[in-house]
Structures are given as C-alpha cells and as structure tokens.
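chain below, 232 aa
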Amino acid sequence: MLDHLLILTAVMLVSGTLGGLVNYYQMLFTEEDPAGLARCLIMGLCGALMVPVLLKFTRSDLLLEIQGDPSRLLLFTGYCLLAAIASRVFVFHAARRQLRDASIARARVENLERELRTLQLEMVPLLEHEIEGDPDSGPALDFNQIRKLDDNALHVLRLLNGGDCVFRSLPGMVREGGMETNSGARALNSLLVLEMVGKIHSHLGIRWYITDKGRQVLYRRSAQPVANRVSN
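prediction:
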C-alpha cells in the first residue's frame, strides 16, 4: 500500500513539474516577469495534486484499479499531466493581471514625477521672488557679460523684476514695455543663455521669470551710478 502511494505521489510530482515547464515555454515569459517559471511550476504541481480530489468527486475508482492493473497508471499520469497543463489558464490570467497592474502603476508614477518636476520648476521662482536674498552673496557674475547687455535686455529684466506677476508672457511684456516682439524675443533668448531668466511651459503657454542671477545683475547695474558719483 505504501509503495502504491509513493508511486502515485511520484507520478503527480513529475507530471506537475512537466506540465509547469510546458506552460512556461508556451507562454514565453520575458525578463519583466522573473517569477514566471516558479509560478508555472507551482501551479502545475497544484493542478496535478488536485487529480485525486477530482477523481473522488466523480466517484472514480481509478486509484484502486491501478493496484490490480498497472496499465491504468498511464491513464492516471495522463490525467495529472492534463491537469497540470490546464493550470496554464490560471497562470496566464495571473501573470497578465500583474503585468497590467505594473504597467498602470509605472505610468502613474511617471505622470506623478512629471507633475512634481513641473511643480518644482514653478515653485523655485516663487520662493526666490518672495524670499529676500543677500545682494553680496548671490551667484558669481561675469562683469564682461553684464557690460555686454544691451538696453533691450536690461529693459526685459526690469519688466520681469518689477511686474505684478512672477511668470510673464512675451506679449504682455511687449505691450507693457512698448517694444517689438522680435526684439523682446531676442533679448529673452540671450538672457536665457546667460541664466538671467528662465522659462516654464504652463497650461497657458510659455512663461518667463527672472532668476536670482538676473536680480543680482539689476542690483549691480543700479549700484554702479551711485558708486561712480561717490568716487567723483
């Protein structure tokens, strides 16, 4: 009797393992699901080990008939292998559900990261505008660059620094400053290269703001005439 149970157990284990391998190679798991092989083997073994229960429910005497007719063991092996391969349905749906949930979660995380980066870009100019800095401890300035700034660039810096809004549009600055659109755009692009202004892509379009370096430039430019008068 013990030998009979050992044989049946060995048949179920081998059939479950073989059925799990068949499922794994049929489903062609990728590297994105490293647990695919383990999942297939476990489900295959579970399916094969459930065969005696199914035979009990159907009131089949196959397990007892094997003792009298060893050829019936082949039929039992076929049942176990069939049950192991049939577990592919559960494995497939579980894997597909996990991959779908992972893709949705990844998309949500990427969207949240984009929103956080956008929010950070919008918050930094606001904080710099509201928090008073130390004029003597600002970013390092190249005075050759400052002297090369034309009147349009300085006018744009003053518009950005003195406006009611931190983020301003090019048409708004052109209208307020009485300048041409092309002149304003060239001034903004040159200041952007010098990191004296920045821009963000909001839901209203491109908006410009003055950076701490730009404020330092205005401070130094406004302090120069006073220094010249004192020296004279």
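Confidence is low (pLDDT under 50) at residues 226-232. The longest helix spans residues 88-130.
thats it, cya
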